[in-house]
Amino acid sequence: MFASMTYPGAFGDFDRLRRELDDLFGLAGLPTGIRSAAPGAFPALNIGNTPTSVEVYAFAPGIDPAQVDVTIDRGVMTISGERPSALPGDDAKAGVYAQERFAGRFRRAVSLPDDIDPSKVEATYRDGVLRVSVARRESALPKRITVQ
Amino acid sequence: MNDTMVAERQENLQDAGRNAGQAPARQPRDREQPTMTPRVDVLEDGTGITLLADLPGVARDALEIHVEGDALTIEGQVSAATPQAMEATYAEVRVPRYRRMFTLSRELDGNRIEAQLKDGVLRLRIPKQDHAQPRRVQVKVA
């Protein structure tokens, strides 16, 4: 699974260089999220909070939204699926120069805050970005209390 | 080192070789704005080159493709479709702009490039000039 989340070839070399630099500067020992993936993992994630929801954006261009699994289990959201390769098979007539785009199975996990409502989830896919919006529980929303 | 720099340098070298002594007519660009380099696949077959670029979050009207001489530039703005009151807690995509440059070689026809953008993937088809397409040479037996 690890191999499918990073890029082979030259990127592997850069990844090794990054690890060595991390060791050199003493960053390797710093804590990271238990489910955090190596830099450059597919899809890239942005996460944000609004007063009423938690928004997760997965930058996953060129996938079939019907083939993506989004699950929430015990506060952990998992986004997984497969991205087909655009490269020709063993076609001798086509030459491949650059091969930087991700292909294959992917899986990323995000742990959500405690106050979310797993039954109110909306997912949309637009321009290659999957947006998952998870509502917060009604009881967790901020309330104004009127003074009698 | 980024790809933009490499592409530009190659282009400058080619410019220098082609019209030595002439100042290349190039417009200064603003380099203030940081950009991300999109990942690409480049494939070649007998009739041309296909370039695939990952541009997630770029809508059709936010994509710009320029061909200037032999320089191909792909630029796209990530649309900010985030809710107003959103406070980012974690971000792997921090720069809302993609940019990448390529130098086209002479046998490619920059005027007949076709572009398709679907689900954040740009597919460019750059055909070869007609005279550069492979041809089977008939050998006549005298």
Helical amount of chain A: 10-25%
Query: In CATH, what is the class of the domain at 36-80 and 92-132 in chain B?
Result: Mainly Beta
Contiguous uncertain segments of 5+ residues of chain B = 1-28
Work out the count of structural domains of chain A: 1
Uncertain stretches of chain A: 1-7
Helix-and-strand structural type of chain A: mainly beta
The CATH topology name of the domain at 36-80 and 92-132 in chain B reads Immunoglobulin-like
Quaternary class? heterodimer
Tell me the fraction of residues in β-strands of chain A, as a range.
35-45%
- Beta-sheet strand percentage of chain B? 35-45%
The tally of strands of chain B reads: 8
Describe the strand arrangement of the main beta sheet of chain B, using strand numbers: 1-2-8-7
Largest sheet of chain B: 4 strands, antiparallel
Largest sheet properties of chain A = 4 strands, antiparallel
Mean pLDDT figure of chain B = 77
What's the structural blueprint in terms of helices and strands?
The complex is a heterodimer of chains A (148) and B (142).
Chain A: H1 2-5, H2 10-24, E1 44-49, E2 53-59, E3 69-73, E4 76-83, E5 95-99, E6 104-111, E7 116-126, E8 129-136
Antiparallel strand pairs in A: 1-2, 2-8, 3-4, 4-6, 7-8
Chain B: H1 3-18, E1 40-45, E2 48-54, E3 58-68, E4 71-78, E5 87-91, E6 97-103, E7 114-118, E8 121-127
Antiparallel strand pairs in B: 1-2, 2-8, 3-4, 4-6, 7-8
Explain how this protein is built:
The complex is a heterodimer of chains A (148) and B (142). Chain A has one domain (2-85, 101-138): Immunoglobulin-like (Sandwich). In chain A, 13% of the residues lie in helices and 39% in strands. Chain A contains two helices and eight strands, in the order ααββββββββ. The relative contact order of chain B is 0.22. The radius of gyration of chain B is 19 Å and the shape is elongated. Chain B has one helix spanning 3-18; strands spanning 40-45, 48-54, 58-68, 71-78, 87-91, 97-103, 114-118, 121-127. In chain B, a hairpin with a 2-residue loop joins β1 (40-45) and β2 (48-54). In chain B, the strands form two sheets. In chain B, strands 1-2-8-7 form a four-stranded antiparallel beta sheet, with no helix packed on it. Chain B has a three-stranded antiparallel beta sheet with strand order 3-4-6. The longest helix of chain B is centred in the first third of the chain and has 16 residues, at 3-18. Classes of the chains: A mainly beta (148), B mainly beta (142). The A-B interface holds A 39, 43-51, 53, 55, 57, 59-63, 86-88, 93-102, 125-129, 131 and B 39-46, 52, 54-59, 79, 81-83, 85-93, 118-121.
